[in-house]
Specification:
- By secondary structure, the protein is an alpha/beta fold.
- 57% of the residues lie in helices and 17% in strands.
- Helix 1 runs parallel beside helix 7, helix 3 packs antiparallel against helix 4 and helix 5 packs antiparallel against helix 6.
Length: 787
């Protein structure tokens, strides 16, 4: 229900707001003074009443304001009921507890189904609020002081009259006495306020309650403060003994006053024996101060160890500890103390040093690695030191791993490393460059003769047998030497020069040393240029095949031909195979070259028609091809596409090639053999332990290297050796082909020894596909008439 707004009503409402807020302030004072928290709820109820009238003065009539006014009755009644309940210490009757939701439901129902103005809409709320005032009057009545009851009696009477005014409010607002009705509320609020103020001054018990409440609160604050101090000390003691870090507490004179379990574990000493002792007991003797007091030392510690900083300490047996400390002043037990938080970092520092060592050294040999070697030698060069850098590579080391196992290889590497360190001396820098490569920097070694003597001794020492698992095996090495007469050169340049010299030693036959000279760099650049040209060349335009005939000695019949590759650049330059084939092997281009050779060899063979029936083409396999997992499938695909029989193709491998991975090579060769392809072992007798693997490899033909045939006529021992190879091969069921036959005398000797086939310039030089078809296939009889 909204109220009329005119000057008289507004003036009386102002007075009503002031009286309501005054009563709220008095109740608030009772509540904060210790008379009970229920007075705070009463204060909130009277504050809301004052707020309601204040809003109606300043805000125009609206639906939200109407809703607030109507629901304000319920809220004030609820606050009054709650306050009386808290003050009385009891529970409200069930009827009153259910009255609030009933009245709330009535208001919602009336707004939904009777949206217009209804004079009875406020009736339930009015009854609810009147009931609250009645309960408040009863509380004030019971709270009166029997000796001086006037104060609470006035408050009780005022509350009871408020209940009556609330019930009469709907009727009073519709009469001419409505404005005086508001004035009655104002007078009753002042009456209740005055009664409560009077009761405060009349009642000794209430004043005692107020004083007692204040004293009680003060006492509680003191007790809580003392309890917190005791608990804090207990918690501090527990924490200090439970944390893993060491905690050492000293007074400002350097006397230890605290020592937790973590500190006992770090220093190996018990707190009982250190408490009361100077803190210098925890320091190594050589750093204990002798010229300053302990107080000054503590100040210095506080300055140095303000942040976590590494220092040293002393274990009980006198050994030095690596520590990390933070020192801070702290007020403990009403006195300033120094507290040090200590952590033992000895193990962490050892691990850090170990990781640093491992990052710069080889795990197997313990030698410096490539990075460490570069740093050490760079430091030497920066100091003006000169000398020589040697690059050592173990020859055919992979064969040791493949035949004897990786443990044997590791044993050999460790043995070689020790020999190199022993030979180099203390002033040298010896490092492991990579798998089977070592680098050495020999300071002050600048004389060529001295370098030669040292290199010969190095090669000889490496050749000394290595013992492993009750067997001995020998190794050899190729050594590249790069003199360093100018300390301004960088390490990478020296290593590259020595590396080039080492490769020259390998190309020269291994088991030797070679000095670097500028021509090697030119050769390196030439190889790099050749690799670039291989990568961008057009194979169909620049590559071609030539065929060198093979002759059956029994009957002098054509047995087949070996397929050879030739490269002519667009500029007309003819590049020999011994130059571009090794480069293609190193750069990986050999794989596509090898499959190009296979494709075109099969194409030519298929194009020779009926002349091809008795022909066998021998094709060389590179290492990349042999270990290509798609090799057998590629060969099968190309052969079937040209309609050739497997027996018309023979694949040549070298023994050293197969020994790179003997198990895998045996599986691949076995698959080719099972499909009917011919297999031959090229350059026999020049490989590693050739006789021990001849029986193991599934080959049909052994090709005797031209080095055995070259001196066959003049060298009797050579003839005996070749005869032995032929006889042994025959017993194993294999055929023998001799390469490099250039004279009739050689041919006759091979024929007399029982050799099966021959190949060389005597029988025929390599020729193009067209020439081979005309001369070898069509006119073979004319070609071999002289034989």
């Amino acid at each position: 229900m909204m109220y009329p707004s005119d000057l008289l009503h507004d003036v009386i409402r102002y007075g009503l707001v002031v009286s309501a807020l005054l009563l709220a302030l008095v109740c608030y004072g009772y509540g904060r003074g210790g008379a009970g928290r229920g007075y705070l709820w009463l204060s909130a109820a009277f504050t809301l009443d004052g707020l309601r009238h204040l809003l109606m003065i300043f805000l125009p009539p609206s639906m939200p304001l109407t809703l607030y006014v109507e629901f304000d009755l319920l809220v004030r009644a609820f606050l009054l009921f709650s306050g009386v309940r808290l003050l009385g210490g009891g529970v409200l009757p069930a009827t009153l507890r259910w009255l609030l939701p009933v009245v709330l439901g009535w208001l919602v129902w009336s707004h939904v189904f009777q949206p217009g103005e209804s004079q009875w809409r406020d009736l339930p709320g009015t009854i609810f609020l009147s009931s609250a005032y009645v309960l408040l009057a009863m509380f004030f009545w019971r709270a009166r002081d029997r000796n001086q009851p006037l104060g609470f009696l006035l408050a009780a009477t005022g509350s009871l009259l408020l209940a009556v005014l609330c019930l009469a409010q709907p009727l009073a607002l519709q009469s001419d006495w409505g404005v005086w009705h508001f004035s009655s509320f104002q007078m009753l609020y002042l009456m209740i306020s005055g009664g409560l103020i009077m009761a405060l001054y009349q009642s000794e018990r209430l004043r005692a309650d107020f004083a007692s409440e204040g004293q009680h609160k003060a006492l509680l604050r003191v007790l809580r403060s003392r309890r917190r101090v005791v608990q804090l000390r207990e918690w501090t003691d527990v924490l200090l003994h439970q944390i893993s870090d060491g905690v050492v507490v000293t007074d400002m004179n350097g006397i230890i006053t605290g020592f937790n379990r973590g500190a006992e574990k770090i220093f190996g000493r018990r707190a009982a024996e250190l408490l009361g002792q100077p803190v210098t007991e925890l320091m190594p003797e050589h750093i204990r101060p002798t010229d300053i007091s302990l107080t000054d030392m503590l100040r210095d510690f506080h300055h140095r160890f303000r942040e976590p900083t590494e220092g040293i300490g002393r274990f009980q047996d006198g050994t030095t500890l690596e520590l990390e400390m933070v020192v801070s002043p702290m007020a403990l037990s009403d006195a300033e103390q120094m507290v040090a938080i200590i952590r033992d970092v000895s193990e962490r520092k050892r691990q850090r040093e170990q990781l640093h060592f491992m990052a710069r050294h080889d795990a197997l040999t313990g030698l410096p690695n490539r990075r460490c070697f570069s740093e050490l030698v760079s430091s030497r060069l920066a100091n003006g030191q000169t000398g020589m850098l040697a690059f050592v590579d173990l020859d055919d080391f992979k064969l040791v791993n493949d035949t004897l196992g990786h443990k044997a290889g590791d044993t050999a590497l460790v043995a070689i490393a020790r020999r190199l360190v022993s030979l180099a001396g203390e002033d040298a820098v010896v490092a492991r460059q990579s798998g089977d490569e070592f680098v050495l920097f020999m300071p002050a070694m600048i004389e060529t003769a001295q370098m030669r003597d040292w290199a010969e001794e190095l090669v000889a020492r490496v050749r000394s047998p290595v013992s492993f698992d009750q067997i001995e095996f020998a190794l050899s090495c190729s050594v590249g030497l790069a003199p360093c007469v100018d300390s301004s050169v960088d390490v990478e340049t020296l290593v590259r020069e020595a590396d080039l010299a080492m490769y020259q030693a390998k190309r020269s036959g291994k088991n030797r040393y070679s000095f670097f000279h500028e021509s090697m760099l030119a050769e390196f650049n030439r190889v790099a240029e050749l690799a670039a040209r291989l990568k961008r060349m057009n194979m169909d335009e620049e590559l071609s095949l030539v065929f060198q005939p093979r002759m059956e000695l029994d009957g002098r019949q054509l047995a087949g031909a070996e397929v050879l590759l030739r490269w002519r650049t667009p500029e007309g330059e003819q590049i020999p195979p011994d130059q571009f084939i090794p480069v293609a092997e190193e750069t990986g281009q050999i794989l596509r070259l090898g499959y190009w050779v296979l494709e075109n060899a099969c194409r030519h063979l298929a194009g020779w028609g009926h002349l091809r029936d008795s022909m066998v083409l021998s094709i060389n396999l590179s290492a990349r091809q042999l270990f290509d997992e798609n090799l057998v499938d590629r060969i099968e695909s190309v052969r079937t596409s040209y309609g050739l029989a497997p027996a018309q193709l023979e694949f040549e491998i070298t023994e050293s090639l197969a020994m790179q991975d003997i198990d895998y090579a045996l599986r691949v060769l076995g698959r080719l053999r099972a499909r009917g392809y011919g297999l031959s072992l090229d350059d026999f007798g020049t490989g590693y332990s050739s006789l021990s693997h001849m029986r193991q490899l599934p080959v049909d033909t052994i090709k005797i290297d031209r080095s055995f045939v070259q001196n066959l006529v003049s060298d009797r021992q050579q003839r005996v050796l070749v005869a032995g190879i032929i006889e042994l091969t025959g017993h194993l069921g294999m055929r023998v082909l001799a390469e490099g036959v250039e004279t009739l005398e050689q041919l006759d000797i091979l024929d007399s020894l029982g050799c099966d086939e021959a190949q060389g310039y005597l029988i025929g030089r390599p020729m193009s596909a067209q020439d081979f078809c005309q001369r070898a296939l069509s006119d073979w009889e004319e070609l071999v008439r002289a034989f």
